[in-house]
Amino acid sequence: MRRLATTLTLGAALAGCDGETPINLFTIEDDISLGMELRDEINGDPATYPVVPEADAPDAYDHLYRMRDAILASGEVTHADDFDWEIYLIDDDETLNAFAGPGGYIWVYSGIMRYLEREDDLVGVLGHEIAHADRRHSTQQLSKVYGVSVLLGVIFGSDPGLIPELAAGLVSLSFSRTDEADADEHSVIYLCGTDYAANGAASFFEKLLEESTVEIPAFLSTHPASAERVADINTLTEELGCSTDPNPNVPPWADVLATLP
Ligand SMILES: [Zn+2]
After folding, report:
1. How far is CA 121 from CA 25, 163, 246, in A?
2. What is the pLDDT, as a whole number, of residue 7?
């Protein structure tokens, strides 16, 4: 009885938590399990996601690892040591996108790399994606949807077969406006602790705003690039006293792009 009462109380709290401090009922291990399931799903579907094996583009992967590791070494990533932070390159020059799953799994399209003009800007996008995983936005959303079931252990306990089903849903999950703003903010916080320009994430949106002929990428389909988003990133960078100078210790961007398949 006591357990049921607790469940109902928390369930009520969940129902009323829109826009408030989000509750996450999943464990870090759940985030990792869901992320691995998602990874296997995506990497096992080359028709939709032409993921490049590391052996086919080792130099491109080395560059991506270098950027990722700089962010993880910033001291600002909460789960830097909890997740494996696997990163995958998708060979599709037409798609301006990058996305992250729970547990620190990240995919980057060659299209967004070729679209951006410097490494700092891609690191800004990576910071945004790392933030979605690090801030656990996916399982926060699942907590809202499945709240009471999670508390009763229904999801993973009685039916482990639900894990792949939940992971499949994550492929098409779009984040809320609040989560997008949170990821933008944390991209600045992470990059501020590196040698990269802290406002790198703003460049992608700025370039899209300037070039209205570009088709809106999936990355932005729900929350399009806006001048407000660019301004928020730049304001926070200034408030925190972070550098906007590009990292001088990186290879020319053209050399990085030359390693793409
Ligand atoms: Zn996002």
Report:
1. 34, 34, 9
2. 34
